[in-house]
Amino acid sequence: MNIKGLIGKKIGMTQVFRETGEAVSVTAIEAGPCTVTWVKTVARDGYDSVQLGFEEVRKLDRPKSGHLNNDNGKGRSNRAEKLFRYLREFDADDVAEIEIGHQVDASMFESGEIVEAVGFSKGRGFAGGVKRHHFKGGPKTHGQSDRHRAPGSIGAGSTPGRVLKGMKMAGHMGNARVTSQGLEVMSSDSQNNIVLVRGSIPGARNSLVLIQKTGKAN
To answer: What is the CB-side half-sphere exposure of residue 5 using CA atoms within 13 A?
Structure first.
């Protein structure tokens, strides 16, 4: 069962020591266990993939519970027996061998493997140009008493006579989907569902994270 990723939650950061004594900053992720809730095939859906469920719950709204109780074209006996708060789709190989209800956990990752983490960055609300785009700001002297954090010119008056699309300005900051690539798996504990990856990953503590294989080894 070769599934390319797993759903998890960011626990926080700590450090581990290599055999050489080097201290390495790592992020601890609660990786799974996840349950296969849906299987897509080329014949029926146009591509192969697997939907995983994470964090079991007792109740869901009707659309989600109805989706999980659908027979998936494989018969009523293969329906998902549990309800999950989070559902995400991942690429997979040999989907014919994958059945609904199978569980995947942190054991799918090996030490030294290179993965990527997908999450949502921390939301900062409305932010100005200095904080959001690292603008330098205006002069602090020569009579400029209120331009310290002003954005400056945002376009010419007569031509083009408008603000061009994509102009860096003040606005909503953060809470955007971010992918951190080239993360080395330092250790994988399938008993406690913990994966330690080198470096930082997007998101706050307890935020949802998708860990995906890249097919690369360190």
So the answer is: 22
Residue in this structure with the two tokens 């699309």, named with its chain if needed: 165
Q: Are 32 and 6 in contact (CB under 8 A)?
A: yes
Element holding 115 (H helix, E strand): strand 113-120
Amino acid occupying residue 134: H
137: left (phi over 0), alpha (psi -120 to 50) or beta: left
Contact 70, 115 (CB under 8 A): no
CA distance 113 to 36: 23
Distance in angstroms (rounded) separating the CA atoms of residues 158 and 150:
22
What is the token pair recorded at 58?
């007792």
Of 193, 147, 202, the closest CA to residue 8 belongs to 193
Residue-wise pLDDT for 171-187, tens only, equals 999 999 999 999 999 98
Which pLDDT does position 21 carry in this prediction? 87
Task: Give the C-alpha separation, 177 to 118, whole Å.
Answer: 7
| Token digits of residue 62 | 């009707």
Q: Residues 11, 198: contact at Cβ < 8 Å?
A: no
Place of tokens 């995947």: 104
End-to-end CA gap in the chain: 23
Q: Which two tokens stand for residue 69?
A: 């109780």
Please say whether the beta carbons of 64 and 82 come within 8 A: no
Q: Residue 70 phi/psi, 5° resolution?
A: -75, 150
Would you say the pTM of this structure is higher than 0.85? Answer: no
CB atoms under 10 Å from CB of 216, counted, come to: 12
